[in-house]
Design goal:
With 204 residues, the protein is of the alpha+beta class. The chain is 18% helix and 30% strand. Strands 1, 2, 3, 4, 5, 6, 7, 8, 9 and 10 form a 10-stranded mixed beta sheet that branches. The protein starts with 12 loop residues before the first strand and ends in a 16-residue tail after the last helix.
């Protein structure tokens, strides 16, 4: 890849797995990945449509907390990706600090990534779970264990091989659509349906 080529930034986009991915990495079969960060150094994302066999209530119990938000009872925890599956990642609405705090743009949580131009953030520190246990915290949350990442140029290569479709992310798909519908809902953002995808990689 030439260094003079303009850099691609797919932060706050969905990666939608093409059928060809089923041949190689079964984890990503029919996956929808929300890209939290993408730069020339690589990319980091969370799979948003593969629930695990545990809900948010159960996850908090594992860290000695009790979920204090009735609206989140029974919410599934997702397989966020194949890396660090023991680590939690919370994708949520951006949290604005109170007016009397210092640092206008500071997150109230210890370890938070602000996702450019999205109104969303990703937090990896336990304090966001503690906020949920106290009946507070972000209005909308999606919790995963594990994440997906790509090294420098790796995602661009996979895109060139037609492994993924990309489209600007819609938070309603992340937070409101039932998990089994998220793949089809993400495709619909491109005006596509599953039957239109060829399992053979090629150029349109």
């Amino acid at each position: 890849m030439s260094d003079s080529r303009p850099s691609m930034n797919l932060t706050h986009h969905f990666l939608i797995a093409m059928p060809g991915l089923e041949e190689g990495t079964s984890f990503f079969s029919r996956a929808v990945v929300y890209l939290c960060e993408h730069s020339e150094r690589g990319a980091l994302g969370l799979v948003i449509n593969k629930p695990m066999g545990i809900d948010l209530d159960g996850l908090l119990e594992k860290v000695d907390l009790t979920l204090g938000r009735a609206d989140l009872h029974g919410a599934p925890v997702f397989h966020g990706g194949p890396l660090q599956p023991e680590r939690g990642f919370v994708l949520h609405d951006a949290m604005r600090p109170h007016a009397d705090t210092d640092g206008e743009d500071a997150s109230p949580y210890a370890s938070t990534l602000e996702i450019s131009a999205s109104g969303l953030e990703m937090t990896t520190s336990k304090d966001v779970l503690e906020a949920l246990s106290h009946g507070a915290g972000p209005r909308r949350v999606l919790v995963t264990l594990g994440y997906a990442s790509w090294g420098e140029g790796q995602l661009e290569s996979e895109l060139a091989e037609n492994s993924w479709l990309t489209v600007e992310a819609d938070p309603q798909v992340i937070f409101d659509a039932p998990a089994p519908e998220r793949y089809d809902r993400a495709l619909a953002l491109l005006g596509l349906q599953t039957w239109m995808l060829s399992p053979v990689a090629g150029r349109a």
